[in-house]
Amino acid sequence: GAVVSQHPSRVICKSGTSVKIECRSLDFQATTMFWYRQFPKQSLMLMATSNEGSKATYEQGVEKDKFLINHASLTLSTLTVTSAHPEDSSFYICSARVATGGTGELFFGEGSRLTVL
Amino acid sequence: AQRVTQPEKLLSVFKGAPVELKCNYSYSGSPELFWYVQYSRQRLQLLLRHISRESIKGFTADLNKGETSFHLKKPFAQEEDSAMYYCALSGGGGFKTIFGAGTRLFVKA
């Protein structure tokens, strides 16, 4: 099956620094990737839709300048949390959909736990 | 607006008992509906899609457009079914997928 890999799985950073999380589709091409945020014991909240070769589409309430998304290739999307604050601490999950011939199914990365001190 | 509602945060049943996880949705067009499952310490994965109308691991889900529901059912729960279940809705094509709050199923021995 299709595999999505996220890196790093865990990251701890100081307040005010920036952190980059990578999401890769290992064995398929993904024109669209999605970034979710999950708070403890809560559901996945869609942050943005990452489109290869174009700007990401952010959900209402998500700061574009805070959460920079780049989707430079058909297999890689990155999420950069800029000037991180403790309230940005969360579990970030990316997912991807097969570009062509897919079923609409989302394939998920293992998630990245960010802790901002 | 798209919305997915899972009214139960926790559902606890005994092994062998029937189980039904409820999901209701709100969408103006023709949605694609999914159930995703997350077992302990594993990533989210697809359980089933309404389009395929299949049974996976004994689970089935029927789309009821009149009631805007997509409840997940299994006649005889197994302990290995214990997991977090999310109902999800997509507008189709490259549209975004949104998730319900999730229901944790606990199957007791």
What layout of secondary structure does this protein have?
The complex is a heterodimer of chains A (117) and B (109).
Chain A: E1 4-7, E2 10-13, E3 19-25, E4 32-38, E5 44-51, E6 57-58, E7 67-73, E8 76-81, E9 90-97, E10 107-108, E11 112-116
Parallel strand pairs in A: 2-11
Antiparallel strand pairs in A: 1-3, 3-8, 4-5, 4-9, 5-6, 7-8, 9-10, 9-11
Chain B: E1 3-5, E2 10-14, E3 19-21, E4 24-26, E5 32-38, E6 45-49, E7 60-61, E8 72-74, E9 83-90, E10 97-99, E11 103-108
How would you characterize the overall build of this protein?
The complex is a heterodimer of chains A (117) and B (109). Chain A is mainly beta. Chain A has strands at 4-7, 10-13, 19-25, 32-38, 44-51, 57-58, 67-73, 76-81, 90-97, 107-108, 112-116. Chain A is built from no helices and eleven strands. Chain B is mostly beta strands. Chain B has no helices and eleven strands. In chain B, the strands form three sheets. In chain B, strands 2, 5, 6, 9, 10 and 11 form a six-stranded mixed sheet that branches. In chain B, strand 5 (32-38) and strand 6 form a beta hairpin. The radius of gyration of chain B is 13 Å and the shape is globular. The chains are: A mainly beta (117), B mainly beta (109). Chains A and B meet through strand 4, strand 5 and strand 9 of A and strand 5, strand 6, strand 9 and strand 10 of B.
- Annotation, overall tally of beta strands of chain A: 11
CA(first)-CA(last) distance of chain A? 37 Å
Oligomer: heterodimer
Structural class of chain A: mainly beta
How large is the count of helical segments of chain A?
0
The profile of the biggest β sheet of chain A is: 7 strands, mixed
Q: What is the CA-atom radius of gyration of chain B, in angstroms? A: 13 Å
Which parts of chain B are unreliable, with pLDDT below 50 for 5 consecutive residues or more?
A: none
Could you list the spans of chain A in which at least 5 consecutive residues all have pLDDT below 50?
none
For the largest interface, the chains and their residue counts are: A-B, 22 and 22 residues
Question: What structural class do you assign from the helix and strand content of chain B?
Answer: mainly beta
- How far the N terminus sits from the C terminus of chain B, by CA atoms, comes to 41 Å
